[in-house]
Each structure stands twice: as structure tokens, then as C-alpha cells.
Amino acid sequence: MVTPFSPESAGTLYTNHIAMLQEGYAAALEEASFDALVVHSGLPAKQSRFDDQYWPHRLTPAFAHWLPLPSPDAVLLIQPGKRPMLFYSVVEDVWESGVEPESDHFWNAFDEIEVADLSGVASSLPRGRVGFIGEAIERAAQWNLAEESVNSGALLRALDRVRTRKSDYERACIAEANRRAALGHAAVLDAFVAGDHSELDLHLLYLRVTKQDDVHTPYKNIVAMDENAAVLHFVNYGSKPPRHKSQSLLIDAGATCMGYASDVTRTALKGKNSEAAATFAELIRGVETLQSEICRRIRPGIDYEDLHDQAHHLLAGVLRAVGIADASEGALVDSGATRFFLPHGLGHSLGIQVHDVGCRLREPKPENPYLRNTSVIESGQVFTIEPGCYFIDSLMQQLKSLPISSVIDWDLVDALTHFGGVRIEDNMAVLADETINLTRDNWPDTP
Ligand SMILES: [Mn+2]
User: What is the pLDDT of residues 163-219, one digit of tens each?
Assistant: First the structure.
């Protein structure tokens, strides 16, 4: 069990997190031959050159790694062996207000320097090779930093590796992000079963229960009913409740805590009074069993891609069990048939970014083109496990043209197409001697 983050209990966790970053960043700087590092928090980005609206500000991930201060144009100076320095300016603005951080546990870790404007940062920079990370590269130019020091690939790769090994503080943040998301999922699943709601209704209900504005969710909620569940990233919510006796719902939605994301998917069905609905219910149970079996197999030292391949073998078993395919598991996997039902990867690294960095160190095998995690599983990693099974029209048409199509019950596939598909996704934290399911451990108790 990981205790979810709270401002009151953050003290030691956060101190240890900063100590880990000091060490990790010092090693990364040495590896990439830098003496110090400037991390810029980012600047508001215009949505279009033809308009004067701005995207919601997203912190530079390396900045968020140190502190959850949601301010644009702030600067962090990191020097091995020294306390990190934080520069920021308070701008009086009649149009905008600053965003307050949700918790103030982090201030003591930095030497804070309030400046009139950031041009003064240049005089505080140490001698030697100073790296710059951030999107606002005009700032690097203002401070006379060498062009090759800006977002250096060697440094970013070294820092990405630091990002894959989560501290206890980071696991607590992701646990709390899961607790928040789980409240929303539970409310949406209850509402779906109890009444007639549109996809838009359920999306808004999720935002309300998780106390998030749409622009603050870690990614755009996927709320898909029936056939829409076959669109892997469906976000064009319908505003009218569907009028069928049986309905499926796929909801893939997360939350954030201190800049850390959760990423959770559930699939539900109501109205099981048809043969096809009963089979789809069986398919949901099959994917759930598959998913928990894969979660059970997570161990340090295993290739994540091997788990992905094992998920295809288990999926072949599910396809056989529900009557979709009548061939051996080996034949269904080797022919590529399972890839048409499960085209995406088993999961991805999770942290500050919902598709976090550092776990796709090599290309996956050709049959797994969308796999975002090809790492060897290590203690400290946090990643998702999200197998699925879908009836995607274009992929079913391709499958029909292969010899293996003769073992598929196409009448059953046609009957199931109405339900779109299934995906079940949890967030897993790997420790040396145990693996923790941050999603299920933080699910609200059913009254
Ligand atoms: Mn995911």
C-alpha cells in the first residue's frame, strides 16, 4: 500500500525526493558534461497566429519534477552540491491572476529569489557549461547560453532515466491522483447503470466529482458508448443518451496531484437481455481476468514487451472462450489475428506526463508498433497495464482478407460490433519485493 499524498504528511517524503533529485541530476549533468542546469517553467503558448487566445499553461516536465509551482516564466538553477535556486517575478496584470499551488510543502527546499524581471538571472549563473531545459529558448539566448546547451539530447536522455525511478513522494502523488480518478470512475459507472445519460453528461459528472476543469485533466477524458468505444481516443461526446436496450460504456479518464497523473480505464455494460450482450459481458470478464493475470506477473528483470506478448496469448484464450475464434492460441497469435483485436500497446510509463518518458529505450518488435514501453522492468518504475479487445471496422475488414479469418465467427463479431470494445487499465508501481496496484488500492469502498 502507498499512502496517497497529503500536504500534512509530505515533509520527509518531499525532502527525500529532493535529495534523490540532487543526486540524480548531478550524475546526469556529469554524464552529459554540464556544470549546472537552468530549467525554465515555460511561457503561455498561443493557440493560433490568427487569434489572441492561449493554451492552458503546462509546466516544463523537468521543472514539475522539482516543484508543483504552476507559474509561467519561473526559473530553477541546479548546481551539484548546492541548494537549488528558484527565480520568479510577480507581475501585476489586470487581465490574469496567478495560479496558487494546491499545497505549499515545497518552498523550504529552495533559495527563493524574487526578481523584477528575469534578465537578472544571467548574473547569477555560474561559470562553466550551463545547460538549459525549456520551450522558451528565447530566454536561453537572453542569458547568453550556448545554442548546443539548449535542450541537449544527451542531457535530456540522462534526465529521462531519473524520471523512470519514482521516489516515495512521487508514488504518493500518483496514488492520490488515482484516488481522485477512482471517485470519478465509480460515480460515472453508478450513473451509467442507474439512468439514461449522454456521453457528455458522464464526462461532466466525472469532472464535477473529481473537482477538475477540463483543461486540468492529465489528458482529455475518453467517454465512449457502444460503437464509439471502438475509437481508441474517442472525445467527440454525444449530447443525447442512446436509445438501445443494451449499452456499453468505456471511460478512460485520470486526475492529477502535484503535477503527477493517473490514467484509468473501465468498461461496463447494462441491459444483458440479449445473447450478444451476454457474450460481451463474458468478454469484459475475460479481459479483466487477463489484465489481473498480467499485473500478477510483473517482476523486476522481466522485459515489458514480453508481458505485452503474453497478453496476446491470453487474449487468444479469451477469444476462444467467448466463441469469437476457433483455433489454437498459438495459431491466433502467430497469424497476427490477435493484433487486429488489440492494436495498441499493453501500456506505458506514467508520471508527470501521462505517457511518461524513459521507458521506450529501443524500438519495439515490428508486430508491436505502438508499444510505448520496451524497458526491462525495474524497481521504481510506475506504468499502466491496459489490455483491450475491440471491434474496429477497418481492422476487421483487414482481418477478413487473411487465411486465419476462416476460424473467426463473423456473425458473432457483427453482433458484438455494436458494443465497440473493452479496455481495463490500472496504474502499477514496481518495488524490489512487491508490485502495488495504485488504482485498485485506492478505489472507493462500495457502501
Ligand atoms: Mn493509458
Answer: 999 999 999 999 999 999 999 999 999 999 999 999 999 999 999 999 999 999 999
Using the predicted structure, report yes or no on whether residue 162 has a pLDDT greater than 80.
yes
Contact 229, 420 (CB under 8 A): yes
Angle between helices 11-31 and 168-194 (to 10 degrees): 110
- CATH numbers and ranges of domains, the chain: 7-164 (3.40.350.10), 168-442 (3.90.230.10)
- How far apart CA 226 and CA 420 sit, in angstroms, is 5
Q: Estimate to the nearest angstrom the gap between the alpha carbon of 436 and the chain centroid.
A: 17
Cβ-based burial of 413 (10 A; exposed 0-12, middle 13-18, buried ≥19): middle
| Span from the CA of 444 to the centroid of ligand 1 (angstroms) | 21
Helix (H/G/I), strand (E/B), else coil: 391: coil
Please choose, from the candidates 116, 193, 188, 161, the residue with its C-alpha nearest in 3D space to the C-alpha of residue 444: 188
CA distances to 207, 305, 382 from 210, in Å:
5, 33, 22
CA of 76 to the centre of ligand 1 (A): 30
CA of 178 to the centre of ligand 1 (A): 13
Query: What are the distances in angstroms from CA 378 to CA 13, 62, 359, 429?
Result: 21, 21, 10, 10
Taking the CA of residue 428 as centre, how many other CA atoms within 13 Å lie in the half-sphere pointing to its CB?
A: 28
Answer for the pair 79, 36: CB distance below 8 angstroms, yes or no.
yes
How far is 66 from 25, CA to CA, in rounded Å? 11
CA of 210 to the centre of ligand 1 (A): 18
Centre of ligand 1 from the C-alpha of residue 409, in Å: 30
Could you tell me if 137 and 150 are in contact, meaning their C-beta atoms sit under 8 angstroms apart? Answer: yes
Distance from Cα 110 to the centre of ligand 1, integer Å? 33
Contact present, 437 and 425 (Cβ < 8 Å): no
- Residue 103 CA, ligand 1 centroid: distance in Å: 27
- The number of angstroms, rounded, from the C-alpha of 107 to the middle of its chain's C-alpha atoms is 27
Alpha-carbon separation of residue 398 from 326, 390, 394 (angstroms): 18, 14, 6
Task: Give me the amino acid identity at 45.
Answer: A
Q: Compute the distance from residue 384 Cα to the ligand 1 centre, in Å.
A: 6
